[in-house]
Structure formats: C-alpha cells, structure tokens
Amino acid sequence: MDEAKFQGVPRIGLTGGIASGKSEVAALLRVHGTGPAIDVDRICRDLLLPDASAWRQLMTIFGPGYFNRDRTVARAKLRRAIFRDPLLRQRLDEIMHPLAREVLLQRLAVAKEPGGIEQGGIVVVEVPLLYEAGWQELFDRVVVVYADHRTALERLMRRDGCGPREAEAALAGQWPLKEKAMLADHVIDNSGGRSRTILQVRSLLDLLTSPARGGKRP
C-alpha cells in the first residue's frame, strides 16, 4: 500500500502499555467527538482467525501446539510463552507487524475517501506496540496513555486473573511507559479516577481540533 494515499487525513496514534487504559481513552475520544477509530489489536485478532494470513504463518512456524481443537489460536498459552521467551515474541512480531501495517494503511486510505471522515474530523488509531513496531511516523501526533507501575500491575492482575510474577513479566515485555511518554506529543495520565481522565481527554480534543493546530505536528 502506497502511504501517500492517506496523506492529508489527520491521524492520531494512541498507545500506552498493558493495563494503562488505552481502550478506555479510545472510547472516551469517540464519545467526545473524534471521527473514525481503528483498533490494531482487532486487526491482529482478525489476522489470526482460522486460515487467515497470520494464522497460516503461525501454524507453520509455531506448530499445532499453540492451537485449540477448533483450530483457533490458544491465546492464553501463546501469551504466556512470549512473556517467557523474548525470541518467541520477536518471531511473532515479525509475522504480525507487516500484515497489520498493510491492513492499517488500507483502512486509513478508506478514511480519506468521500464520506470516510467528516470535515474537520480526525482518525484515532489504537496501537499497543506503536513504538516497539516503529510506526510513529505513520501519525501526525502520538498520544501515550500513562499509568504508574503499581496501578498498571493491579489492573492487569484484576483483569487477567494472574499473579504478581506473571503480571510483572507482562509489563517487562514492553517498553517502559515513562520512555514512551517522553517520546509522545501528548500524554494522558490514567493513573487516577475516570473523571480526571475525562478532563484530560476533553483538553486533548480541544488541542487536536483547534484550527490553528489542525492535528499536525508543528
């Protein structure tokens, strides 16, 4: 896909870390007035459906041990394996990132077509591994959703029903959130309550939709 085909569409990359609250902030952005939203996690899930392109590569390279009887990917088993083995994670990323990027570029091109995005609107793309994949140049601005380590750890254990050791391993498998925050154009601190996050989202939207800003990097 030619990346020039989606130039001119205001593109916001939304990222963060495990259990930092990316999806919560993405939902708040939609509620409070952004245009189309694209979830790269959902793209990856679709690519891993039985007989889809990533599914076929995963079966060939990883073998049937990472699949359920109904031919779906054994996600929990695969997730635990890549947390323990960085080389396995790298092999999975090498499969998923190029395929997900191609689908993302196609969807961004569609957003630029007539009726794809309202005048003055923006496209928010939720990308968990934006910096790890090196995709920051695809976006006009990058927003990092931050949560302090203790908050993220507690959320992850509560969400996935895992223990501290497994949760720590999961958090250690991604770039430190503080490093991502330093690289970002905007940061939303989601360590506190929902009302505080909503105020930050509204302020961010004011910045992103301001005619003087136009969603572009200065």
What does this structure look like?
It is built from ten helices and five strands. It is α/β, with parallel strands linked by helices and 218 residues long. The chain has one domain: Rossmann fold, CATH 3.40.50. It has a five-stranded parallel beta sheet with strand order 2-3-1-4-5, sandwiched between helices. It starts with 10 loop residues before the first strand and ends in a 9-residue tail after the last helix. 29% of the residues are buried. The model has no long low-confidence stretch (mean pLDDT 87).
Give a brief rundown of this model.
Helices cover 52% and strands 10% of the residues. With 218 residues, it is of the alpha/beta class. Strands 2-3-1-4-5 form a five-stranded parallel beta sheet, with helices on both faces.
Question: What are the salient characteristics of this protein?
Answer:
52% helix, alpha/beta, five-stranded parallel beta sheet, 218 residues, 5 strands
CATH architecture type: 3-Layer(aba) Sandwich
Q: Write out the strand line-up for the largest beta sheet, numbering strands in chain order.
A: 2-3-1-4-5
Helix content: 40-55%
The name of the CATH topology is: Rossmann fold
Low-confidence stretches: none
Q: Let me know the CATH homologous superfamily.
A: P-loop containing nucleotide triphosphate hydrolases
Mean pLDDT: 87
Give the number of helices: 10
- Topology order in helix (H) and strand (E) letters: EHEHHHHEHEHHHEH
The beta-strand count equals: 5
Query: CA-to-CA gap between the ends?
Result: 27 Å
Strand content is 5-15%
Class by SSE composition: alpha/beta
